[in-house]
Amino acid sequence: MIVIWVQNYDKFRKFAHKFHSMSSLVELLSPAKNLECGVEAVNHGADAIYIGAARYGARVDAGNSLADIAQLVHYAHLYGAKVFVTLNTILTDKELEEAEKIIHDLYNVGVDALIVQDMGILKLSLPPIELHASTQTDNRTPEKVRFLQEVGFRRVVLARELSLDEITAIHQATSVELEAFVHGALCVSYSGQCYMSAAATGRSANRGCCAQYCRLPYSLYDATGRKLVADKHLLSLKDMDRSDFLWEMIAAGISSFKIEGRLKEVEYVKNITAYYRQRLDAILDGKSDWKQASYGKCRYYFTPNPEKTFHRGKTDYFLHGERGDIACFDTPKSVGEFVGKVTKLRPDSFEVDGSQELHNGDGLCFVALGSGMTGFRVNSVEGRLVKPAQMPEQLSVGADLYRNYDHQFMKLLAGKSAERKIGVKMLLQETPQGFSLTLTAAQKSVTQELICDKQLAQQPEKAMDTLKATLLRVGNTPFEVEDVDIQLSKVWFLPNSQVADLRRRATDALEELLSQPHLSPDTPLPSDSTAIYPEKTLTYLGNVMNSQAADFYRQHGVMKVLPAYEQKPVPGAVLMFCKHCILYALGHCKKQQAVSDDKWQEPLFLQYKDRRFQLEFDCQHCVMMVKSF
């Protein structure tokens, strides 16, 4: 596919030119559970990282100290990468004051932007920091995105469910930066519009505490009480993978490509960041229309493969307007890569076909009848003969085998799996007092002086070779030398120790310059514009939990503002709005599939243990709703 993209570059360039200007920056945005993940995201090619603050991020278990965020900012800025911090929960009135302090602290350590959901934040006394509208603000229409642009957001994170045509329409109607997810776990409901966890457990997704009720096993019943499906993960989706369609997304107006995973481990961050860096580089390298948003080239000591870290199967998820096979009913866990079929069983081992090389210590899994996905650890491998640590009872001839833990691959990721180097140019010149060394990288330069007496070299050719070799030894710095220009009137003798010290001082100064925080006093603050919100009434779906947010919406034309579901639960409320449709997935779609002889009497119900939810279907708009019951 990469070869096809490059060959068809001119065609796509003409297509893209209709929709947005050339010479744009393209950003790969990676998740960071913690400082280690953030640093490795940079090392493996991220142009930006998003990470949770100590509080008020939409993943309560992925908070980070201000000191760690400051350290990540310093490291990321060295490579021109940015750091965005998530403050994307809805807040109470009592929490706003602390949120304001956190925002000022983040600005002061150089954070480049905040990702927010709660519009009450826009009413606070903010520093001049960029604001990005989280996908939790339910960004699906040109009208909504244009409003967010007009009130001061620099970027909008689009809903995952949008098609290329819908993205294009939003881009044509706005000038704000557009960010879209390209990889990772999928919420079955529109983000910000899911209240199932809050209703069932009191743990609100909009407050960062989702209990992931969508990943549980459910039985499906019709109105007569007939059990239609037993104990399947009917709301669990495959993972998004849009790596084959990055060019199309650029052409549609996306400038930031987001990898999901702020709860994922560092191995996932390394692997998936490297994978998308390579895919984007195949598009961007040698092209003048779009450029990488940061600098530095990566070298990898492994071959990235998204199936080898957390992987539920893949879907492009409505990007082309098609539903397709998006659900994974058998398990919500990582399935990994297909490795073959079982061809023969023995009492303590089995044989498997397929071309994948298996290793001692691998984790394999298969779907067991009535038990869902079953996993086991490999003790030893001899050719195609596999000996498990314990032979799984339900394994049968013909079973599809998947590897969800590749022991050798994970060993590679456990060590140094990549390095990122910034190209630098060196210029050594004479000065009246001695010599100067100027280093230039990323359009920034530093100069260091060496004050010394000048002595002619007794062996000029050897002296020049030694001088150049010493300058090239940048060692473990973040730099690699692209060019050395030595401008001397005569061949002078310079002791290696003095040249090495001059080089070290210059590289240290350049590293410090590049790492400086990108404080932007000119960044516009949220606007008091007269922009009118697209709706006149906000129900619980508006997620308004504090008086400042309510004032914000009233200021922008909303006549009636009801409290958030978390403040005042609504009996019989819709708890999820889903593009995923159980009727479609099970072959009972009323619009696109032939009517089955097996008549299901609606309403249908999902049941987990003693908790039941009612399903409703808006077939005109292809939306399934999950309601409290």
What does this structure look like?
By secondary structure, this protein is an alpha/beta fold. The chain has 4 domains: 2-186 and 239-300, TIM Barrel (Alpha-Beta Barrel); 200-237 and 551-629, no CATH class; 336-414, Beta Barrel (Thrombin, subunit H); 421-514, no CATH class. Helices cover 25% and strands 28% of the residues. It is built from 15 helices and 32 strands. The chain has an 8-stranded parallel beta barrel with strand order 1-2-3-4-5-6-7-11, surrounded by 5 helices. Helix 2 runs parallel beside helix 9, helix 3 (35-43) runs parallel beside helix 4 (66-78) and helix 12 (460-472) packs parallel to helix 13. The longest helix has 19 residues, at 266-284. It starts with a helix and ends with a strand.
Main attributes?
629 residues; alpha/beta; TIM Barrel; Thrombin, subunit H; 4 domains; eight-stranded parallel β-barrel; 32 strands; 25% helix
Topology:
Elements: H1 2-7, H2 9-17, E1 24-32, H3 35-43, E2 48-52, H4 66-78, E3 82-87, H5 93-108, E4 113-116, E5 130-133, H6 142-150, E6 155-157, H7 164-173, E7 177-184, H8 196-201, E8 218-221, E9 227-232, E10 239-241, H9 246-252, E11 256-259, H10 266-284, E12 290-292, E13 297-300, E14 314-315, E15 337-345, E16 350-352, E17 363-368, E18 372-382, E19 385-388, E20 400-405, H11 407-414, E21 418-431, E22 434-441, E23 444-451, E24 455-456, H12 460-472, E25 479-487, E26 492-493, H13 496-514, E27 537-538, H14 547-555, E28 560-561, E29 574-578, H15 582-585, E30 604-608, E31 611-618, E32 623-628
Parallel strand pairs: 1-2, 1-11, 1-12, 2-3, 3-4, 4-5, 5-6, 6-7, 7-11, 10-14, 21-25, 27-28
Antiparallel strand pairs: 7-10, 8-9, 8-30, 13-21, 15-16, 15-20, 16-19, 17-18, 17-20, 18-19, 21-22, 22-23, 24-26, 29-32, 30-31, 31-32
